[in-house]
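It would be a great kindness if you could assist me with a short task in structural biology. The matter concerns a single protein, recorded as an amino acid sequence and a row of C-alpha cells. Kindly check, if you would, that the fold set down in the C-alpha cells agrees with what the sequence suggests. Thank you for your consideration; the sequence and its C-alpha cells are set out here:
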Amino acid sequence: MVNSMTGFAASEGTFADTRFSWDIRSVNAKGLDIRMRLPDWIAGLDQAVRAHLTKTLGRGNVTVNLRLSREAGASDLAVDEDALNGILNALRLVEERAIQHRVTLHAPSSADILSMRGVLANAQPQDEDQAPLLGALMADFATLTDAFCEMRRTEGQNLLTILQKQLDQIETLTAAAKEAADARRPQVAQTLRDNLARILDNAEGADADRVAQELALLAVKADVQEELDRLHAHVSAARELLTTKGPVGRKLDFLMQEFNRETNTLCSKSQSTDLTRIGLELKAVIDQMREQVQNVE
C-alpha cells in the first residue's frame, strides 16, 4: 500500500451565524511537519486539529488554514478599547505639541479614527460557549481529512504503478548485466593468463605461484556476481515494501541508496563495454525511481 505525501482538499460550511472554510495541503518531507493558521480564540481547536492529523498521517509537510466570518446581520466588528485609548492619547499629545509650535491641525473625524490600524477588529465572542462551534468545526475537518487522505491514496496508486514499472526495468537490466558478465568471463580469464605470462617473462626470479595468487585475487575482485545477487534481493525487498501497510517511504529511500551503491560497484568492476552500458542504464532508472520515492509517505 503506497500513499503519496502530496495532496489537497478544501471545504466550506456554516454553524449558527458563522461561516467557515478549511483547506489542507501537503508536500513531501522527511517527517510529519504540521503548520496551521487557525483563529486563536477558539479554545482547544489547535490541539484537536494537531492531534487528529498526527493520528491520521505518517509523513508530509502539512499546512492547514481555517477562515471564519459572521453571516450578514451578525456583528462582525468590535472596537478594541485599548487600541482606541492609545490612539486618542497620541492625538492629544500631537495637538498639544502643535499648539506649542503654533501649527494648525484639522481635527480627525470619528471615521478617521475608526480607520486607524487596530481600532476595529473582528468580533471574537469570548463570552459565548465555544464548544458547539468547536464540535462543528472538527466534524467538518474530519470529513475534510478523509477526502484529503483519499486524494493521497489515489496519488499513491499512480506512484505505485510507476515504481513497479521501474522495478521491472531494474530486474530486466540486472538479468542483462548477468549475461554480459558471463560473456566477458573468457576474455577476463585470457587477459589474466596473458598478464601472468608477461610478468614472468619480464621479472627474473619472480615467484610464479605468488604472481598467480595475486592475479587470482584480482579476478575475484572483478567478479560482479555478488553485486548482481544484491540487486535481485533489493528488487524483491522493494516489491514487498510496496505491498506493506503503513508509511514505507523512508525504507524505500534507504533501499534506493543500496541500489545505487551496488550499481556504482558494478560499473567500477565492469571491464566490459556492454556491462558498463547496462550499469549506466541501471543508474538512470534508479535515479528516476529515487525521485519518485521522495513522494511516498
